[in-house]
């Protein structure tokens, strides 16, 4: 029987600037989703915060892009944003960019990662939630998980995944997509996804065999807020869902990709590059220079649509080294102050508040 896992998120307001979703707001979201579970709209749910982003993880039988499920998420975010306004939280309603819900939450501000698949005999599920970064931050780890034999031993030694995976890559500027096969097209895949602010991995598919080729095994949210709002309104802090084991990368192979704190954009005012730090839930609040960007991970087993978990996957001293490394890189990057490459490239800064500053200098320039 098929199950749908939907992870829908929005920044509805936070306490002490962009740091944290307060408990009152999470409680309010929980009440609404308990109600939705009792009326059998959804099978199960969990609520998280990744820093200042409110995350709704829901399981149900309604498929992806369900009006009912998207409507539910929209209602929850609206209610929480109203409460956030009442509490005078920072950025109350930040990610709710449009007023009218018309059947689908896409294009209204929130980020969405959802997939429908046949639940296996044992279905391990790993959820990732990032703050202070953008969808392209998932390119490197997702590539490593499903295509790099130095990360994922199973690509080499497990016959059920030896043939590799198919990547669905979106060009988020030109609004088009391409399906590419690994390992056959590894170098071409990298030629695209290395440009992570433009080309983002949207989904990964198996090549068939043990698992149906049309059912995704990983999905990433790719919404870009500035494209909805037409101006900078905060970063598009992304989420991802990855299925594990039995023809797929092992849980440990999935997590291994986060042992390297690679550079991502989105730190401070969405305008700086910094390392992504894998942290336990309790450290999911960005304070130093509103960062550095970070990622939490929740592990589950699915049982007929019910969620067994979460396990706080980065709450492991084995990730201390990645965190220490991230701190060293953060310190090094910070010493650059307003200089690139700490500050984003001029091209990427077009979507921030910098052009307004540059505008004021326009008349001062003399022709050479
Ligand atoms: P267990 O033997 O503990 O089930 O682990 C198998 C495995 O493949 C871990 O990566
Ligand atoms: P968020 O996108 O997490 O709201 O952060 C915005 C920001 O500008 C932090 O400095
Ligand atoms: Mg915010
Ligand atoms: Mg955020």
Please describe what this structure looks like.
By secondary structure, this protein is an alpha+beta fold. Helices cover 26% and strands 27% of the residues. It contains 11 helices and 15 strands. The protein has helices at 23-38, 67-86, 139-147, 154-157, 186-193, 225-229, 251-256, 267-270, 320-334, 346-349, 354-359, and strands spanning 2-10, 44-50, 53-60, 111-118, 123-131, 165-171, 176-182, 199-206, 218-220, 239-243, 263-266, 272-275, 277-278, 294-303, 306-312. The strands form 3 sheets. Strands 5, 6, 7, 8, 9, 10, 13, 14 and 15 form a 9-stranded mixed β-sheet that branches. A hairpin with a 2-residue loop joins β2 and β3 (53-60). The site of one magnesium ion has 7 residues, from loops.
The helical percent reads: 25-40%
The topology string of helices and strands comes to: EHEEHEEHHEEHEEHEHEHEEEEHHH
Contiguous helical run count: 11
> Bound small molecules, which ones?
1,3-dihydroxyacetonephosphate, magnesium ion
Radius of gyration: 20 Å
Overall number of strands? 15
The class by helix and strand makeup works out as alpha+beta
- Percentage of residues in strands: 25-35%
- What distance separates the N and C termini? 70 Å
Mean pLDDT: 96
Stretches where pLDDT is under 50 for at least 5 consecutive residues are: none
Largest sheet: 9 strands, mixed
The coarse overall form would be globular
Concise structural overview:
With 368 residues, the chain is α+β, with helices and mostly antiparallel strands. The protein has helices spanning 23-38, 67-86, 139-147, 154-157, 186-193, 225-229, 251-256, 267-270, 320-334, 346-349, 354-359, and strands spanning 2-10, 44-50, 53-60, 111-118, 123-131, 165-171, 176-182, 199-206, 218-220, 239-243, 263-266, 272-275, 277-278, 294-303, 306-312. The chain binds 1,3-dihydroxyacetonephosphate (13P) (2 copies) and magnesium ion (2 copies).
């Amino acid at each position: 029987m098929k199950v749908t896992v939907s992870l829908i998120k929005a920044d509805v307001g936070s306490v002490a600037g962009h740091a944290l979703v307060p408990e009152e707001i999470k409680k309010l979201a929980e009440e609404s989703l308990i109600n939705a579970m009792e009326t059998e709209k959804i099978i199960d749910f969990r609520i998280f915060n990744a820093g200042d982003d409110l995350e709704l993880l829901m399981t149900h039988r309604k498929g992806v892009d369900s009006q009912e499920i998207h409507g539910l998420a929209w209602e929850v975010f609206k209610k929480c944003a109203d409460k956030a306004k009442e509490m005078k939280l920072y950025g109350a309603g930040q990610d709710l960019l449009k007023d009218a819900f018309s059947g689908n939450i896409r294009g209204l501000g929130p980020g969405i990662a959802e997939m429908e698949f046949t639940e296996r005999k044992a279905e391990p599920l790993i959820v990732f939630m990032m703050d202070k970064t953008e969808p392209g931050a998932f390119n490197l780890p997702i590539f490593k998980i499903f295509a790099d034999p130095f990360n994922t031993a199973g690509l080499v030694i497990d016959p059920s995944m030896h043939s590799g995976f198919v990547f669905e890559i979106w060009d988020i500027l030109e609004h088009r997509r391409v399906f590419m096969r690994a390992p056959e097209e590894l170098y071409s895949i990298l030629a695209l996804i290395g440009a992570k602010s433009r080309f983002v991995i949207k989904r990964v598919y198996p090549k068939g065999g043990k698992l149906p080729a049309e059912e995704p095994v990983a999905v990433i949210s790719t919404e870009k807020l500035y494209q909805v709002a037409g101006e900078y309104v905060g970063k598009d802090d992304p989420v991802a869902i990855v299925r594990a084991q039995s023809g797929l990368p092992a849980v440990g192979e999935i997590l291994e990709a986060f042992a390297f704190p690679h550079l991502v954009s989105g730190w401070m005012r969405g305008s700086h590059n910094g390392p992504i730090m894998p942290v336990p839930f309790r450290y999911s609040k960005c304070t130093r220079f509103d960062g550095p960007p970070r990622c939490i991970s929740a592990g589950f087993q699915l049982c007929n649509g019910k969620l067994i978990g979460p396990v706080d996957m980065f709450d492991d001293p084995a990730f201390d080294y990645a965190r220490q490394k991230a701190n060293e890189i953060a310190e090094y990057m910070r010493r650059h102050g307003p200089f690139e490459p700490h500050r984003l490239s001029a091209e990427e800064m077009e979507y921030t508040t910098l052009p307004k500053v540059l505008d004021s200098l326009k008349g001062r320039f003399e022709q050479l």
